[in-house]
Amino acid sequence: MLETYLSWYREGRMDESEFRSVTDHLAQSGLTVEHPILGCGMLLDVVGEQVKLPVGRILELVGLSVEPLCMQFWLSADTDVVCDVRYVAPDTQVLTFVLGGLTENEREQATNAVQRLVQRELDRTVALLVDLGGETADEDDDALVLYGRLPMGPRPDRVQFRTNRLSAVPAVLAGAEVTDLGNGLSAVRWS
Fold it and tell me: How many CB atoms are located within 10 Å of the residue 107 CB?
């Protein structure tokens, strides 16, 4: 099965209260940091093993930019969405939600939750990348979003830039189809 992910690029480092606001908003859409039965949050260590921690501690670690961190959001007691949280200099926080292994309905629920978050945080959003095949590397995504350089290899399937930032990435737009979504975002696709 192909890996599917969404990467939300946000201006500025999130402190604990800002990240709490983000997680509260995602929870309203059914994507929670707290496991619904165990009552704790979970980070994943370097080999993918769960490390149970109080939710407040996870929020604190993100706020301290102790990273990168790999955490889990929960759709249900046995369905999780892995989220990699990292900070990219000079001033961008990236949350990558890995949707591989989810059913179509679960992927849609998680995608809708992230899309609602992007709309709520539009003034801080740099871009939202959607890669259905999981083929692009983090450094290629970063080069595309932050420096306006197209990857030499695979590209994300879709990128939504804040419409008022399009002029900052002219090289990305060359040969691309750009669609104004009418909500402050413009979708960019390549043939």
Answer: 19
Using the structure block, give the residue that is written with the tokens 């009552």: 39
What does the pLDDT look like over 57-68, one tens digit per residue? 999 999 998 779
The CB-side HSE value for 105 (13 A sphere, CA atoms) comes to 4
The span from the CA of 123 to the CA of 46, in Å, is: 33
| Cβ proximity of 19 and 117 under 8 Å | no
DSSP track, 49-84: -EEEE-HHHHHHHHHTT---EEEEEEEETTEEEEEE
CA–CA gap between residue 36 and residue 144 (Å, rounded): 37
Contacts of 18 (CB under 8 A, 6+ apart): 63
Give the dihedral sign, CA 10/14/18/21: positive
With 0.90 as the threshold, say if the pTM is over it.
yes
Q: What is the pLDDT of residues 119-148, one digit of tens each?
A: 999 999 999 998 877 677 778 888 888 888
CA 70 to chain centre: 12
- Bridge partners, residue 188, by sequence: 159, 178
The count of residues in the chain is: 191
- CA 13, distance to chain mean position in Å, is 14
In the chain, the amino acid numbered 47 is: V
